[in-house]
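Q: What structure does this chain adopt?
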Amino acid sequence: MSTKKTSSRSSKAPTGKFAAGQSSARKNTNKGSDAIAKAAQSARTAGAGRLPAKYASSAGSAPGAAKAVRNKPKPANTPFQRLTEIVKWVDLVIEVLDGRLPETTRHPSSEEIFGNKPRVLIYSKADLADSAKLRAYVKLAGERPQSGPPEKLLMLDLKSMAHKNTFIEAALAVTAEKRAALAKKGLLERPMRACVVGIPNVGKSSLINWFVGRKKAKTGDSPGVTRGTQWIRVHPQLEMLDTPGILPANLFTAEDRQRLALLNLLPADGYDNVEIAKFGLMLMKKYYADRLEVYLAGLSAIEDGLDYIAEKKHYLGNGGRLDHYRAATIFLRDLRAGKLGELTFDKLSL
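A:
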């Protein structure tokens, strides 16, 4: 009787990922191998891609199981990977850009990452940017015909409490189609979900704090302060998810990286202060030579500006030599703090 049952079971040719595992299991008549075969059959019937964990070590020879384990999706570990996952589940994207570099601070792969999600572009640090130049740029860009997803552009000074309603109106305007679609399906009204994105230190967390009126999101003056994600209700119809900044360095050009470093939008260990200060002096001579004269008379006409700054301000190092590093560090600090005036360094297509 036992022999008949065994032969009957053997006459059914196994198919699927665990055929090899079942074949090897039938060669043994002990209870352990029979249990493995049953587990394989059960997993295949349920559509599972691998054997239950308790049988995995015994059935290591099953090629289907090994392949399934190798192909198991890896968790998103980097801020950039987490963001690409988050974007799939939100209704709109709020992209924060630095008003001093309105084009450079837009992520090189933003179109690919955000796809057809509606967007609100926020130009932050407007108090430090060349307001006339930035305002003209935002106005012209906002009037251009849109061929992609709905998009609104706003200039915001996050140190002022004004214009909150303007932002809410923009966020609701770009999601009008989404809200209408939900209502048509008879679904309960819910807040639109937005993720706040941008490269480090452009003001993502400051934007959320600007709304809630208290420090709900962690901020700092160094790139990469925000480490996790959190939902924050900023309006009955809008929730924002604060996210870490994204900056895959290999996607930015060498000159873009210099511009980002100049305004403290790259980690300090990623560039040399002296070289970036020289680059900054070159840009100042090109765009704002008059501001250099206000900062230090005669500076705009000098070829080696760091030598001149160190000499005039008496920055001396060992042996009485001019301290270029100190001159560079203080020049960068003053430029970033707005002591050389309102600046916008991108050559904007006005």
